[in-house]
Specification:
The chain has about 260 residues and is of the alpha/beta class. It is about 40% helix and about 20% strand. The longest helix has 22 residues. Bound molecules: S-adenosylmethionine (SAM).
Length: about 260
């Protein structure tokens, strides 16, 4: 694990302390969740706290489906073997293992030292904020990112960084939670994530954190908004796919421009 090397040019720099993100959802405003530097501090300390039992709770709360979703996300990159793929917000490393098995060269980045400390992959890791990637422009073939979009303090800046570091023709594959379209599945999902998961998380890890995680979906922009943000950041062929009846969503896109 390393401290971030000096960033490649040009880099936007970290968001100014206390500033609200340029992008806010109506749901986030209604839920009165933190923004700016307050959000970054909360997210980092929460993941530091839940890191030791993160994998166990994750498997239980998704019935192991999260492993399948990461594999689908890795296939959706559609990149050749040997490609350099950054897993942003790599956490304990589940994506890194799958990327390596698929023949890619993975590099993990995460904000939380606790999550990086619990990373069990032996892959190269860097502590960094997604809004300020310590990577040279156009040097990366692909990016994966699992269940972290709603945790970023300024998602538009993170997407701009994706556009800066991914080479033309490179691919991104982003996994996030979503709400199932089907009525019954939607009700079941709500009960599970809002009522049962905080109990499981509380028994095995940190109850406040596992209450916050479902609430944090309020930060997620709509599909149309995500699409516009990615196109503005330099991507085309933006596609959104519902996984397992809409329990998760997979967003893929290709970096515009000539190779
Ligand atoms: C829900 S976990 C997902 C971990 C992993 N991607 C997975 O699929 O299991 C969210 C991760 O995002 C990381 N994270 C949150 N904000 C971040 C930021 N601004 N920059 C980089 N990583 C961040 C957290 O530390 C945490 O490891």
């Amino acid at each position: 694990m390393t401290e971030p090397p000096s960033p490649g040019p040009p880099s936007p720099g970290p968001p100014s302390p206390g500033s609200a993100p340029a992008y806010e959802t109506a749901a986030r405003l209604a839920a009165d969740l933190p923004t700016g530097a307050d959000k970054t501090v909360l997210v980092r300390s929460m993941f530091d706290a839940i890191a030791p039992r993160y994998d166990l709770v994750n498997r239980l709360m998704t019935f192991g489906l999260d492993v399948r979703w990461r594999k689908q996300s890795t296939r959706a990159l559609g990149l050749p073997v040997g490609s350099l793929v950054v897993d942003l917000a790599c956490g304990t490393g589940d994506f890194l293992k799958i990327l390596r098995s698929a023949g890619f060269r993975p590099l993990g980045l995460d904000l939380s030292w606790g999550m990086l400390g619990a990373n069990h992959t032996g892959e190269p890791l860097v502590q960094a904020d997604g809004a300020w990637l310590p990577l040279t422009s156009g040097s990366i073939d692909g990016i994966t990112c699992g269940y972290a979009l709603r945790n970023f303090t300024d998602l538009a800046t993170v997407f701009d960084e994706f556009g800066r570091v991914v080479r033309p023709g490179g691919r991104i594959s982003l996994l996030e939670v979503s709400e199932p379209d089907h009525g019954l599945l939607r009700i079941g999902d709500r009960i599970w994530f809002r009522r049962v998961v905080p109990l499981i998380g509380g028994a095995l890890s940190d109850r406040a954190a596992y209450r916050y995680l479902p609430e944090s979906t309020a930060y997620l922009p709509s599909t149309g908004q995500l699409r516009s943000m990615l196109m503005e950041a330099g991507f085309s062929a933006v596609n959104r796919r519902a996984l397992s009846g809409g329990l998760s969503q997979l967003i893929t896109a290709t970096r515009r421009g000539r190779r």
